[in-house]
Design brief:
With about 120 residues, the protein is mainly α. The protein has one domain. The protein has four helices and two strands; from the N terminus they run αβααβα. A two-stranded antiparallel sheet has the order 1-2. It is globular, with a radius of gyration of 14 Å.
């Protein structure tokens, strides 16, 4: 049960992050919070499938760069499946991926300060 609640919290946090980045105009546009939740779910499923295939992103600076490229490609793939999500090309996807990483870090930091996450 605790794992299920953790997954729901992670999904909601990811949706909030996608919604915030969509409102910042960083190469990603989201129609509403419902679209952000669906986008977060699609992105989570794609990342999960990559993990099942054994695709490891590595660590360090090279791993971070590869992760940003993979995140950008996942955003572009999600754009094709979701009508409420629009990505402004590959450069827009990279900028949005960087924005998502930064906003995720800030939200996780705040949740950690509050003792929630």
């Amino acid at each position: 049960m605790e794992t299920f609640i953790g997954a729901i919290v992670a999904l909601v946090v990811a949706a909030v992050v996608i919604y915030i980045v969509g409102r910042l105009g960083l190469g990603l546009t989201v129609d509403g919070f419902g679209s952000a939740i669906i986008a977060a779910l699609v992105i989570a499923i794609i990342v999960w499938l990559l993990g099942l295939l054994g695709i490891s992103l590595g660590g360090g600076l090279l791993g971070a760069i590869v992760y940003l490229i993979v995140a950008a490609v996942i955003l572009m793939i999600s754009d094709r499946f979701l009508s409420g999500l629009q990505v402004s090309g590959f450069v827009g996807a990279i900028v949005a991926a960087i924005g998502i990483a930064a906003v995720t870090w800030i939200i996780n930091w705040l949740l950690d300060l509050l003792g929630i996450f």
